[in-house]
Amino acid sequence: MTNETKYNQMYPRSGRSAALSPGTTAPDFTLQSTPDQTVSLSDFRGQPIVLVFYPADWSPVCGDQVTLYNEILPEFQSLGAELVGISVDGAWCHAAFSRDRKLHFPLLADFEPKGEVARLYGVYRQGDGVSERALFVVDAEGNIHWSHVSPIGVNPGAAGILAALEDLQEKKQQNQGEQKKGEKQEKEEAVK
After folding, report:
1. If you count Cβ atoms within 10 Å of the first and of the last residue's Cβ in the chain, which end, N or C, has fewer?
2. Greatest Cα-to-Cα distance within the chain, rounded to the nearest angstrom
3. How far apart are CA 89 and CA 107, in angstroms?
4. CA geometry: angle at 21 spanning 15 and 27, to 5°?
């Protein structure tokens, strides 16, 4: 029996998730990133952020997923985005897991009250006491641009995240181009 099969038996899919959909304002939160420091979603206002909800540190799929994101973190950052991982594990567990995996992004402890932020985002698995494997790309204004819930035993990879971030980058460039065009027209009319 594979690790993925064992994991899926431990945490069977609990039905359709009520994950927040694109266009929704992302609920703000403040969670521990270390035993003595916190991080808030609002800390990232003005830039896109990727929220990675995952069931648990040290689980088979989660380790592979966060390691993948750590390896391609420079790609996320080149698209102007930061990334945070969120699970119901405590800050001390996250510290050990992060150190073991040599992670370069924060893991946030949705520990007490357990799963409160996962509930806000509609991705808490009540019967299992963990979050879904869910991804949210939040734009610079704090709105959910893209979301995805993966089966709990499946690594969702990074293609969807990268596509969403590229879409945000493209829209930003279009807006800047339209703004410059508008400014140019205003100057021309002022000269007349």
Report:
1. C
2. 77
3. 9
4. 105
Any idea what DSSP says for residue 100?
H
Distance, CA of 63 to CA of 56 (rounded, Å)? 9
As a whole number of angstroms, the distance between CA 137 and CA 44 comes to: 12
Number of domains, the chain: 1
d(CA 121, CA 101): 26
Compute CA distances 126 → 116, 118, 129, 147, whole Å: 11, 10, 5, 20
Asked if 87 contacts 55 with a C-beta cutoff of 8 angstroms, the reply is yes
The set of residues, in sequence order, having a beta carbon less than 8 Å from that of 155 and lying 6+ positions away, is 61, 64, 65, 68
Which of these, 1, 23, 8, 2, lies nearest to 150 by C-alpha position? 8
Please say if 62 is a catalytic residue: yes
pLDDT digit string (tens) for 12-21?
A: 544 456 899 9
CATH number at 119 reads 3.40.30.10
- Domain extent at residue 129: 3-191
Catalytic residue among 62, 91, 118, 135: 62
pLDDT tens track for 131-156: 999 999 999 999 999 999 999 999 99
pTM, rounded to two decimals? 0.86
